[in-house]
Design goal:
This protein is α/β, with parallel strands linked by helices. The strands form six sheets. A 15-stranded parallel β-sheet has the order 15-16-18-20-21-22-23-24-25-26-27-29-31-32-33. Strands 1, 2, 3, 4, 5, 6 and 7 form a seven-stranded mixed β-sheet that branches. A five-stranded parallel β-sheet has the order 9-10-11-8-12, sandwiched between helices. Helix 3 packs across helix 6, helix 16 packs parallel to helix 18 and helix 19 packs across helix 22. The longest helix is centred in the first third of the chain and has 18 residues. Helices cover about 30% and strands about 15% of the residues. The N terminus and C terminus are likely disordered.
């Protein structure tokens, strides 16, 4: 069967196209190159004309080249004897020329000389003449092939004979591809100024071409650019380490969370290519041992960002015997970090210094004027301002953003404030931007700094809206003033210096008495405030989490929490709660409880104003406690239950008609979802994952008229309720169902024709072996469908009407062994993956001009049965 291979990737931007002559190189060099590229996380399109049948499929493959980013032609002795290879090469050269520098050709001269490719010897010259004589290429095509060969030969490539073996050559090719594709690339600010000299100096210290192990500590005051420098250097060097590289950000802050160091250890193992090594890690010492076992055998590049003590280094990398050539970068404000005696590695210091005046002026101008230099009549004022900031990059950026398009009077007022702050007082300078915020914006800033860095923004938005903080406008202001960013997965990001500024502002509300502050996030201070017998009118938000597992048998009575009359955010982890809170905490908007034993001892609570309610690993004795909470939560927007192992049924949802997001995950005893779920007319997002005892979903789910995102991944559920096809607002449907006995027809179901009613659907993913039959022809009525994934099902036919879908980009039909043929597909398609032992026929794919990923596989069955 015709086949092309594509290594997996997060997207088409990482695609490499391998062009080679199969009989010459597939077994051996090309296979090894393909495996090494894929192992490094690169998506690889590997085409072999020996496996193809039919002119039309070849046409689609050639056009698929247009959307590849890097081309690697492997020139072997018989490469020019293949008309397919030559046609690919012509297309590769044309596509590269049209890209205006955005694509690259990386030629490999395997067992030929560059002069052979340049047609200066008979090898390729005669091969092309033979193709012309045999009428396999026209005269026009021959001329195009000659021009393409000459063009590629002018590009610097790799001559295999100059290397000690294929292993060394392949390593260099992978490094070059990684660098060009920027896999694992860390995002940095678009306004990089004055960093080049630092990069050169640090690169010399790292000296990656030398053996041995080097650990470099970048130290300096907060906001001076340590993290930015580490990111830039990491981006330059990661390609030399394949996928054995990791950048751990915000180590100081993350390690303070419950199980924070364990989570960092798992992420480190996962990013250096050992995700399986994270299984079973529950304790820090176990993680340290596992990391040591991995690092002793691999050359790695690791960055630990914002470390503040030696324990963090020791638990993440410090007890390891590194493989020769490894490099470790650490950023810290603490000069005393890594002042240790060791013969394991060479430890070097690099101290960051403030920017030069001219660099600081350029950075300031980019933010204040959107130019590289200040306007003439602002020049002197700009210089005075950057001098008053101490030329600290973060302060320069924040003050510049604050003054953008502001009147000159405000500039002068800001300068006066900067002058009054001590020269070394970074917080005083940054606080000028904070002081310019209105009250609600300040509250949002302080909440993020205290609790929500790295958290999804939507839960906080719900809380702030109910507190009338105008969060949409407030968050936009904070972004425009360079105080926060919204990053991947809709999460808040804040520079650690700004986070510390926010926490310092809270601390200064009363340095001596935590319970007189507005927010508490430290374990000891929180317990101290809880133990006070006085009523508290100050604390608005309280989080009790520890670094590592919390102490056992810490009991908190609900009346202790009830003394915080103005509390709106409460997050507790690892405590035993007892008492009666029915008449307390009326201002609470967000409750998050984790690892709570015996919550039955907490009989009642009144969540009438709560909008976010989260339970993670909470041991409800029975369902009654949850029911009593939910029936009073009329304003609830978010309900999340994860790892609540004793919950057997959901509560009656009629008491929370405003619910918008509902999640059940890893609730192993959950057997029933109450039919009242259909009353949730505001529900937007519903997730039901890994609830192994759940066998059925109620038909009332179809009444969720505003549901947009529906995720179900439960091994016991055989099929979706028929009513879901009424949910006209649905945008994404993800369903992964049971494993069943194929011989039992009672366990199968089909997608109904009513699917055409889901006219807003963008993603349809059903991965259940119970699904059989034909995909309904009414699918043509889904004009917004982008992704169709029916992998692992018994679907037997794809209708011809699929060609009518104008936005369909991806079709995934892996392990669909009942499919025998494919119809004509829409021209919008970018990815096509089909794996079927029954597949006999595919259509002419030459119309798929946007295709960048093609994987047709016989699933281990017939090898020669494809017709086109």
């Amino acid at each position: 069967m015709a086949s092309s291979d594509a290594g997996t990737s997060s997207g088409s931007d990482y695609q490499v196209f391998l062009s080679f002559r199969g009989p010459d190189t597939r077994i051996g060099f090309t296979d090894c190159l393909f495996e090494n590229l894929t192992e490094a996380g690169i998506c690889v399109f590997r085409d072999d004309e020996e496996l193809r049948v039919g002119e039309r499929i070849d046409g689609s493959l050639l056009r698929a080249i247009d959307n590849s980013r890097i081309y690697i032609p492997v020139f072997s002795r018989n490469y020019a004897s293949s008309p397919w290879c030559l046609r690919e090469l012509v297309q590769i050269v044309a596509s590269t020329f049209k890209s205006e520098g955005n694509k690259a050709i990386l030629p490999i001269f395997l067992d030929v000389e560059p002069n052979d490719v340049k047609l200066k010897t008979p090898l390729y010259r005669d091969a092309i003449l033979n193709l012309e004589r045999e009428k396999k290429l026209s005269s026009e095509q021959v001329n195009a092939c000659r021009e393409a060969l000459m063009e590629v030969d002018a590009i610097k490539g790799w001559e295999a004979k100059k290397y000690r073996g294929h292993g060394e050559l392949i390593r260099l090719v992978v490094e070059e591809v990684l660098q060009k594709l920027k896999i694992k690339h860390r995002s940095v600010t678009e306004h990089l100024v004055g960093i080049d000299d630092h990069v050169v100096a640090l690169s010399k210290l790292l000296d990656i071409n030398s053996n041995g192990v080097r650990l470099i500590k970048i130290h300096g005051m907060g906001g001076i650019g340590k993290t930015t420098l580490a990111k830039v250097v990491f981006n330059q060097l990661f390609s030399h380490f394949g996928k054995c590289c990791c950048f751990l950000e915000d180590v100081r802050a993350r390690s303070l969370r419950t199980d924070g160091l364990v989570d960092l250890q798992k992420r480190l193992l996962s990013e250096i290519g050992h995700p399986a090594g994270t299984k079973g890690i529950e304790e820090i010492d176990h993680g340290t041992k596992r990391i040591g076992e991995v690092l002793c055998s691999k050359k790695v590049l690791i960055v630990l960002d914002d470390v503040d003590n030696n324990e963090q280094v020791e638990k993440l990398v410090g007890k390891s015997t590194f493989y020769s050539g490894s490099r470790i970068l650490i950023t810290t404000r603490n000069k005393d970090v890594l002042r240790i005696n060791t013969q394991k590695w060479q430890i070097l210091d690099y101290e960051m210094e403030v920017m030069s005046t001219e660099c600081a002026l350029e950075l300031f101008s980019k933010h204040a004027f959107n130019k590289d230099s200040p306007l003439d009549y602002y020049n002197d004022l700009s210089r005075e301002i950057i001098y008053s900031t101490g030329r600290l990059p973060l302060a320069v950026e924040v003050i510049g953003s604050f003054l953008y398009q502001k009147p000159q009077e405000l500039w002068k007022e800001t300068l006066d404030k900067l002058r009054r702050a001590p020269h070394e007082d970074v917080f005083g300078k940054l606080k000028i931007s904070y002081d310019a915020l209105n009250f609600e914006q300040q509250q949002i800033f302080l909440d993020i700094a205290s609790f929500f860095v790295g958290e999804d923004k939507m839960n906080a938005i719900y809380m702030w809206k109910d507190c009338e903080f105008s969060p949409d406008a407030g968050v936009a202001v904070l972004i425009n003033m360079s105080l926060i960013k919204i990053v991947e997965n809709n999460k808040f990001w804040m520079h650690d210096q700004l986070r510390d500024l926010g926490r310092k502002i809270v601390h200064q509300e009363n340095p001596a008495n935590p319970k007189e502050r507005s927010r508490i996030w430290m374990w000891d201070e929180g317990l101290e405030a809880l133990r006070s017998r006085e009523m508290n009118n100050n604390v608005q938000a309280l989080s009790l989490e520890t670094s590592g597992r919390p102490p056992h048998n810490v009991v908190v009575r609900s009346e202790e929490i009830g003394r915080f009359e103005h509390l709106r955010f409460l997050k507790l982890s690892g405590l035993t709660l007892v008492g009666d809170a029915a008449n307390h905490l009326t201002k609470l908007r967000w409750i998050s409880l984790s690892w709570q034993p015996q919550i039955n001892k907490w009989p009642t609570m009144s969540p009438k104003n709560v909008v976010v309610l989260e339970f993670n690993a909470v041991d409800f004795l029975d369902d009654s406690r949850l029911r009593s909470l939910i029936k009073m939560a009329a304003k609830l927007k978010v309900l999340s239950l994860k790892r609540c192992k004793n919950i057997t049924g959901t509560p009656d949802f009629s008491g929370c008609p405003n619910l918008e997001r509902l999640t059940f995950e890893y609730c192993s005893k959950l057997r029933k979802i109450d039919g009242s779920i259909g009353m949730l007319k505001c529900l937007i997002d519903l997730k039901i994952n890994d609830c192994s005892s759940l066998k059925h979903l109620p038909e009332e789910i179809g009444d969720l008229v505003n549901l947009q995102y529906f995720f179900v991944d439960c091994s016991g559920i055989k099929e979706l309720p028929s009513s879901i096809w009424k949910m006209k607002s649905l945008r994404e449907l993800h369903f992964r169902g049971d494993i069943y006995e194929e011989s039992d027809p009672a366990n199968t179901w089909e997608l109904p024709s009513a699917i055409e009613m889901l006219q807003n659907l963008e993603v349809l993913q059903v991965n259940s072996p119970s699904l059989k039959g034909q995909l309904p022809s009414g699918i043509e009525s889904l004009p917004f469908l982008r992704i169709l994934n029916l992998s692992g099902t018994r679907v037997s036919e794809v209708p011809k009407t699929i060609s009518m879908l104008p936005r369909l980009q991806r079709i995934e039909l892996r392990k669909c062994h009942k499919i025998q043929e494919l119809p004509t597909l829409p021209t919008s398609l970018t990815h096509l993956e089909v794996s079927s032992s029954s597949l006999r026929e595919v259509p002419d794919l030459s119309n798929l001009t946007n295709l960048v990923g093609l994987d047709l596989d016989d699933g281990g069955g017939v090898g020669d049965g494809l017709c086109t």
